[in-house]
Amino acid sequence: MTSISVSYKEFHGTTCKPAMGYSFAAGTMDGPGDFDFTQGTKSGTAFWDLIRNLIKTPSKELSDCHSPKPILLATGELNLPVPWQPHEVGTQILRVGNLFIVALPGEFTTMSGRRIREGVQEVIRSNKRYGKRTAAPIHVALAGLSNTYTSYIATPEEYELQRYEGASTIYGPLTLPAYVNQFRKLAEALVLPNDTVHVEFVSACPRNDVRQNGTFLTVEYFDEQRGEWVVRFTDSDWETKFIWKRGGPIHTLLGQSTAVIEWQITSPDGMCLPGLHRIQHFGAAKPPFSSKLRQFQGCTKEFLVTCGR
């Protein structure tokens, strides 16, 4: 989260190395700190600066980046025995249907949480696939204190006041806009439509053989190391669709139908799957005036999947 360029609405700049401000030591109304620290402090004192400098004198770059926060602990420049506060932060959104769970790595203020949720909702609702084309409501839930702990996250306006939450916002005044941008990117990646492979086969009624413990389709890739085709997906995977179309009356009379197979080019974790692929279809035909089934299969031409944005 350090040195990240931020351009969000009226906010422009970069995030800072971690640091804690004077008002952090003042505590909150329901849990005040010790000594003479008070909330809303925007300038240090000679005494506490001296104590601070015995531990680590903050660099001018760090002090300027965190302004108007007076730095009490330059945690981003303290690395013994380990870094005092994280420089890299894991971010995460979990999606279950139309529920998007945003894993917040710290304590977000009420308004910070609202801006995160609004940013994620805006991305989802503006997406043609999951926003405009779905009547189902979109739910965004915030799960705080997830994964890495990064203290408080205040809005830039709250940061300017330098009360406890602002002084405890460790990556500077642009911390929240950086998180908003990051979670918007994650939300976009979750709802970004992937390319879909669409193929059609001349087929037969799937009720002829429901293929218990089998499949109507396979998506296969060529394993160059093994020198053979390997099944990647079947009709039991979310990434595939098997659609049977009977056709018109003449087609029904002649026993003709079509099987449509669709494969959304992605893995269960949302990653692209490059390489040489093919799709096979399996069915069973029933000749006229006979109960004996004739198994058949069809295969597409090989096609190459490449990944890029």
From TrEMBL:
Residues 4-181 form the Neutral/alkaline non-lysosomal ceramidase N-terminal domain. Keywords: Hydrolase, Lipid metabolism, Metal-binding, Sphingolipid metabolism, Zinc. GO terms for biological process: ceramide catabolic process; long-chain fatty acid biosynthetic process; sphingosine biosynthetic process. It comes from the Eukaryota. GO terms for molecular function: metal ion binding; N-acylsphingosine amidohydrolase activity. Residues 192-305 form the Neutral/alkaline non-lysosomal ceramidase C-terminal domain. Binds 1 zinc ion per subunit. Zn(2+) binds at E107, Y152. InterPro entries: Ceramidase_alk, NCDase_C_sf, NEUT/ALK_ceramidase_C, NEUT/ALK_ceramidase_N. One of its GO terms (cellular component) is membrane. It catalyses: an N-acylsphing-4-enine + H2O = sphing-4-enine + a fatty acid. Belongs to the neutral ceramidase family. Pfam families: Ceramidase_alk (PF04734), Ceramidse_alk_C (PF17048). Its cofactor is Zn(2+). This is Neutral ceramidase. PANTHER family: CERAMIDASE, NEUTRAL CERAMIDASE. Its EC number is 3.5.1.23.
